[in-house]
Amino acid sequence: MRAGRAGRATTVASAVLGAALAALLLGGCGGDGEPAAPRTEPTATAGGSSPATPSAPSAPSAGTPSAPAPGDPTSPGPGPTGTTPAPSPRVTSPAATLVRVTRGGGFAGRTGTLVIGEDGSWTRLDGRAKEVGRGRLTGPQLGTLRAALREADFARLPRTSKSGTVFDGFTYAFVYGGFEVATGDGSVPIALTRVLDALPPFED
Q: Of 70, 91, 199, whose CA–CA distance to 146 is shortest?
């Protein structure tokens, strides 16, 4: 009698244990048999609302240059305006003076000066040093004048040579090679006569 009660008790205990295991297995799975994902409860803040999850800053895309900040020394300056700057004017120096001869007196009592450049260019000035004419000697003419100036030997000429006065005659003042020689009609050395003959006219 006691053995039969013990067998029924063992059978009941086995059924209860199997039901408990089945319930445990069903509670750990989802409706489709997949394990249920754990639920995470948000932590309440002091104001009663869930804190917003900060989003990570987006990285700049490759190949996109960032704009330079104002005042950045690496910031490029203003671009070209598209205009080409005008070239500065070329300054040409006047030709060095070869010889300067001033003539005065004569019947009209006028004074004129011829300034001959090393390149053969010449300028005619009036008594007030105002330009009244210009021109250029040819190559042969310039060669003749240079030869006459060398042959005159200004270093040996007297600074003033006036042996007589010619009525209505001309006076001359030569400046050449750092020397100045004054003379007049009637006393012009022959060497200076050749220089006068090689000069352009004092008047038109």
A: 199
DSSP tag of 92: -
Enumerate residues 6+ apart whose C-beta is below 8 A from 43.
Answer: 50, 51
In terms of DSSP bridges, do strands 160-161 and 179-184 run parallel, antiparallel, or are they unpaired?
A: parallel
Q: Which ranges of the chain have pLDDT less than 50?
A: 1-4, 6, 28-34, 37-38, 40-54, 57, 59-64, 73, 75-76, 79-81, 83-94
The residue written with tokens 């249920």 in the block is 36
* DSSP summary character for residue 127: T
Side-chain-facing half-sphere of 180: CA atoms under 13 Å: 2
3-class SS at 129? coil
Which token pair is 201?
Answer: 């006219």
